[in-house]
Write a structure and sequence with these properties.
9-stranded mixed beta sheet, 263 residues, single chain, 11 strands, alpha/beta
Amino acid sequence: MKIITCIKQVPASSNVQVDPDTGVLIRDGNNVKMNPFDLYALETAFQINSMVSNVDIHSVTMGPPSARSVLEEALYMGSDEATLISDRRFAGADVLATAYTLSQLIDHINDYELIICGKQTTDGDTAQVGPEIAEFLSIPHVPYVKEIIEVKDKSIILRSTYEDYDEIVEVSFPCLITVDKGSNVPRLPSYKRRVAFKDAVIKTISLKDLKDKNPENYGLNGSPTQVDEIFPPTSNTDSIKIHGTPEELSASLLKILKESKYL
């Protein structure tokens, strides 16, 4: 069984810089980590590996050359191979262009039964890339997966959790699923695997390797949505003291909440 896991490198803190011209985050390889939701996606792949035999897990990511670090982490955790898709013409992609680029990479790999993504990323929070990849590849997808119930030869049975109910679904291969946070306990990278994979080759794919080589379909050029403005939130530690009877304090607090538009 061939599984592709889509992972991403995201800022490790809120202390990030923004490109003033493009309005996108500057990703220079410093102060970064693997997207937390992707850790659960990886662990789901590893759990499937323990449920059925002959599983190959291929981790992929899109980003600058520094994004190789999350692929190395995936290999040390349990992935069998890894591929980076990187090209300056991919920079500034919105969710649609990102999903299209990843779908082109997966089409280039062209060897999978199951694609596993984290539900969303902590730097974008759209939860759209996974389903959009599935749409570009014309395969079924299931979101918010919490549990893998059974893996069959031609399908997978899983549980999805929504706000008010759970749903058990059987979906045929090839398909894509997005995994929610808390669905399992991700393992740590293994020192033995770090030693074993220290010379592992991480393949790099660029625009020239893809079926669609038109640069207008990627990056800022291929993004129908553009960031108008992005900036870090300002912190405010101003405080006031109010005095009076319990009734007066309640009235004062209510007034403050209304004026601050919390109510």
